[in-house]
Amino acid sequence: MRSLCFQTLLLALVLIQFSSSSFSWALLSSSDVNPPYPKAISDLKEAIVKGLGFPAEDFKIYGFDPRDAQVGHSVAYEFDVEIDNKVLPLKLLEDVNRWEYVDLPIFRVEEPGTHQEENGLVEKRGSANELPVLAPFQLAGPMELWIQDAKDMRLSLPHDVDAGVLKKVILADGAVVTVKGARSVSLRHPLDVPLPLNRTQNGFAAGILTLAEQLRHASRAQGAPLLSLRIVGPTSLTAPSSSSTTSDNRLKLRRLAPGFVELSSPSKTKAIERLSAIDVQDEVPTVLSPTQFTTMWPLASINGSNSNLIGFEQLLSSVLGPKANKKGSFRLLKADVSAQTFVKIGFQAEKKLKEGDGFSFESFPEWRTKPDTVRMNFEVLAKVDGDKVVPERVMPVNPVVVEDTVASNMLMGNVTMSRTPVIHLPPNPFTL
């Protein structure tokens, strides 16, 4: 009996020792501060360290768990405005409506000789194979469109037309098409924009509408250069649907060269011929009222009361300053609107404390050990550009506050219970 008990005790000690060693090994592997990051995350960390400007020996960042990355889609607006030989870059970003946990391929870490999808090592939390696209929009002539990366683009007028692989499309005055599936739209050549800029009136971007209408009339003149746009990745160009099916509402196609066509509206032909013999600059009103024009050329689908358009007009007015109300012009060097994929991921930064950092220990209790380093929590908003993740904005995040637990003897001034005075409560007749 004693030998059996001894054997049982020995076996229990062996199991306890084995389990404790396994637990310590698992704890060590799970607390690895340098996990095998994918190249996109490693490049993102290097870009953040360079952007913050702290010395590498005094500053460390860690975290960046790809499983915690949230992915969303938005629209980015980038403009370069030249005013008095000074170039001012402007960048606007729409708010992301929805954040999702998506398994991006650039965040996958593949082990040598294995395939993650076949072995089921990648958690499918969403689809990230499709590139983001802009919402459908309408363009009105006169202008020219240069098409890129659109081998399977449909051309419907309103019925499908086989025009081959299109590289260039000219929209005559009066022709309107709806563009679907485009990833970006950009200005191909610099554009001189006349001034003054009238401020927003009655909830309409009257200033932008006036400038757009002046540019439209200027482009109608004989020999004037057409407004040229580059569109990447459209899936279709279609004529706007109409309740009437008469020939006057249909667009006319004319092939000019392989991959080069012109779209015109038969109903506008006579009106254009009359305008060619008249100086169109005399017909341009100096101030437009909302009842005259409600859409902005060449983007016929944007209403003059669009909040983004009004916000851009206010921003442009603040950038121009007093020049906005004077006669003159400014030069638009770049205008790019693109659908982008953004990633939001958190990380931690650790910095060594030195004299002159401005960190105060007044809020620390005397019994607490003063730290040598300080940890900060951040969240980075980055743009996915192919196989790279480019940081756009780094924001500090308040961590979860952990309550300090203090032993009772510390609260009592380190006095033993033997020296604590005994307090007798008054007797209670209901006490048993």
Tags for this model:
disordered N terminus; 13-stranded mixed sheet; alpha+beta; elongated; four-stranded mixed sheet; Tunicamycin induced 1; 7 helices; 29% strand; 432 residues; TUNICAMYCIN_INDUCED_1
Note the topology.
Elements: H1 2-30, H2 39-52, E1 59-63, E2 70-83, E3 86-93, H3 116-119, E4 137-140, E5 143-148, E6 154-156, E7 168-171, E8 176-180, E9 184-187, E10 191-195, H4 206-219, E11 227-232, E12 236-238, E13 252-257, E14 260-264, H5 269-276, H6 307-320, E15 328-352, E16 373-385, E17 388-397, H7 408-411
Parallel strand pairs: 5-11, 6-12, 7-14
Antiparallel strand pairs: 1-15, 2-3, 2-15, 4-8, 5-7, 8-12, 9-11, 9-15, 10-15, 13-14, 15-16, 16-17
Description:
This protein has 432 residues and is an alpha+beta fold. The chain has a domain at 71-108 and 124-340. It is 20% helix and 29% strand. The chain is built from 7 helices and 17 strands. The protein has helices at residues 2-30, 39-52, 116-119, 206-219, 269-276, 307-320, 408-411, and strands at 59-63, 70-83, 86-93, 137-140, 143-148, 154-156, 168-171, 176-180, 184-187, 191-195, 227-232, 236-238, 252-257, 260-264, 328-352, 373-385, 388-397. Strands 1, 2, 3, 5, 7, 9, 10, 11, 13, 14, 15, 16 and 17 form a 13-stranded mixed beta sheet that branches. A 4-stranded mixed beta sheet has the order 4-8-12-6, with no helix packed on it. A hairpin with a 2-residue loop joins strand 13 (252-257) and strand 14. Residues 1-34, 112-128 and 270-291 have low confidence and may be disordered.
